[in-house]
Amino acid sequence: MYEVTLDPSGRTLALSPGGNAARRFHAVWLRDNAWDPETRAPGNGQRLIALRDIPAETTITSAQVSGQVLRLTFVPEHKVIEYDIPWLIAHAYDRVAPRVAGWTAPEIETWDSGFVNRVPASDFGVVRSDSAALRDWLDQVARYGFGKLVSGPAKDGALFEVVELFGYVRETNYGRHFEVRTEVNPTNLAYTGLGLQAHTDNPYRDPVPTVQVLYCLESSAAGGENMVVDGYRAAERLREESPEWFDVLTRHCARFEYAGSDGVVLRSRRPMIELAPDGELVAVRFNNRSTAAITDVPFDAMETYYAAYRRFGEIIDDPAMEVTFRLNPGECFVVDNTRVLHARKAYSGMGTRWLQGCYADKDGILSKLAALGGGSREAAE
């Protein structure tokens, strides 16, 4: 049972879903979000009008509820529009919002080393042939920021078949893909047997590639285990330890640079911990190899900034934060490059270790997940 109360001015109304707290809506918002065929294209839902086409003085003169439908009359257009009430409730903006800086959406779950036995993993062949299995795997990748696929073909270029599950390859100066194995005179430390600190890839790009795929073709060298760290959880720990340090890394930009290839000079300026205007944690950028001189922090804040930067790195390096696993031939992992840092242990020159990597975009994962009926942000809220 729904009840609606119209404000005398006609500029707002309150909708009460059954005994629950009323949700308020503005007339102009309701008119802008109408789903009648004159406002939205029936085929794709895109708006057919601009805000300029809606009178600024729009008000509601009549509001009636019939079952799950809300019927409104708008003036000065004298237009009658019906709304699906469950849709309105799912999209209500009159709610108490979590506004502690660094909050994450309900569909995001942060983790630490205790996650080692819960790593999202699925069979490559199964997710290719079963849309429900693909949906469930993508849902976990979206929730936790990474996931593994096993039992895939150990063949050159198999990583492209992984990307085809949800999107498209993002080509860079490294090409459509890159090789990860020991090289003589490498252009990037990733191509040596050295261990690498947990990092996000390509922070010097704007925008950064938001998804990375690493696919194993050979793995007989000793060591070289892959490791992931949840950057969101690291940011939460920093905030818990020192709100001041968390704040300084969110308020000031770091600078990142890469110029290791002929004809390539890539630079970006972004915070190491990035928040949306309402305080939502939306990205982490951390890569000691690519950090340039930091020049966007005021003199009086620089010591605090470096203390925060140091502690953030210590948290990232803490074994209590890492999940380690070994990739065997035919296995890969997909990682959200705006959230999860990845690394590898050092490996010896004996035997072989050959991985192929490429980049893609997170919107492809989220789009495919939504198309398959996976979790949505509105439903989670």
From TrEMBL:
<protein>
    <submittedName>
        <fullName>Gamma-butyrobetaine dioxygenase</fullName>
        <ecNumber>1.14.11.1</ecNumber>
    </submittedName>
</protein>
<keyword id="KW-0223">Dioxygenase</keyword>
<keyword id="KW-0479">Metal-binding</keyword>
<dbReference type="InterPro" id="IPR003819">
    <property type="entry name" value="TauD/TfdA-like"/>
</dbReference>
<dbReference type="Pfam" id="PF02668">
    <property type="entry name" value="TauD"/>
</dbReference>
<dbReference type="GO" id="GO:0046872">
    <property type="term" value="F:metal ion binding"/>
</dbReference>
<dbReference type="GO" id="GO:0008336">
    <property type="term" value="F:gamma-butyrobetaine dioxygenase activity"/>
</dbReference>
<comment type="similarity">
    <text>Belongs to the gamma-BBH/TMLD family.</text>
</comment>
<keyword id="KW-0560">Oxidoreductase</keyword>
<feature type="domain" description="TauD/TfdA-like">
    <location>
        <begin position="127"/>
        <end position="359"/>
    </location>
</feature>
<dbReference type="InterPro" id="IPR050411">
    <property type="entry name" value="AlphaKG_dependent_hydroxylases"/>
</dbReference>
<dbReference type="InterPro" id="IPR038492">
    <property type="entry name" value="GBBH-like_N_sf"/>
</dbReference>
<dbReference type="InterPro" id="IPR042098">
    <property type="entry name" value="TauD-like_sf"/>
</dbReference>
<dbReference type="GO" id="GO:0045329">
    <property type="term" value="P:carnitine biosynthetic process"/>
</dbReference>
<keyword id="KW-0408">Iron</keyword>
